[in-house]
Amino acid sequence: MLQDLDFLADRIGQLVEQSRQLNAERAQLLARLKTQDAELDALRQQNRRQQDEFESLSTGVASHQRQLDVVQQQAQADQAELKKLLEQEQAQVAALRRELDSARAGMGVLRDVAGQARDQIVMERVDISLLGRDYSLACPPSEKARLLEAVKLVDQRMQSIKGSGRVSGNERIAVMAAIQIASEFLSAKAPDGPLANVAFGDFKRKIEDMHAMIDDVIEPSGTSR
């Protein structure tokens, strides 16, 4: 009986010791759980702060994006307006250039007309003789020397034709002289001629000037000698 009581007492002591250990472990677990709860609360608070910061950043990014969209739209509108203004300026410049070219062309025409008018206004009377017949011509002073040379050449050619005795009559002699001079001119203008590189327009203009002066011939001032 006493042995049973001792055994029971030992057993109770073991149970009490185990209970103490369990209580100690339970206290440790509770302390650890409390610590983990505190850490979890701290993590939750940190997560909440991070979420708040993220939401704030998201709001800021959205606001900046809206501002950027507005700026881009304004820039596109400004670019379109500048392009339109540039096209208008280019069109105006092109129109001004055309007007300037037209004005320059008009000035050139006016200069030519003024030069012709000046030559027509300032004319000098020149008395000449062809085949013994006197004429009075009018020409610009600058053309007088060339006109006298041409008259001398034509008169010499007509005198030569008349002296040959093969052609009679002043008109026929004048025609033959003109044909001979034209033939010599065309020969000189041939590719191997001395005047091959001279512009035909210059000769044509001079001939037209002489024709104009001949058309302006006044009535013969004398009779055939």
Automatic annotation (TrEMBL):
The GO annotation for biological process reads:
cell division; septin ring assembly
| A cellular-component GO term for this protein | cytosol
Q: Which SUPFAM superfamilies match?
A: Cell division protein ZapA-like
Q: Which UniProt keywords apply?
A: Cell cycle, Cell division, Coiled coil, Cytoplasm, Septation
Under the heading InterPro entries, the entry gives: Cell_div_ZapA-like, Cell_div_ZapA-like_sf, Cell_div_ZapA_N
The record's annotation in Pfam families points to: ZapA (PF05164)
**Where is coiled-coil annotated?**
5-106
What is its subcellular localisation? Cytoplasm
Glycoprotein is among the record's keywords: no
> Which proteins does it associate with, and in what oligomeric form?
Homodimer. Interacts with FtsZ.
Role description = Activator of cell division through the inhibition of FtsZ GTPase activity, therefore promoting FtsZ assembly into bundles of protofilaments necessary for the formation of the division Z ring. It is recruited early at mid-cell but it is not essential for cell division.
The name this protein goes by in its record: Cell division protein ZapA
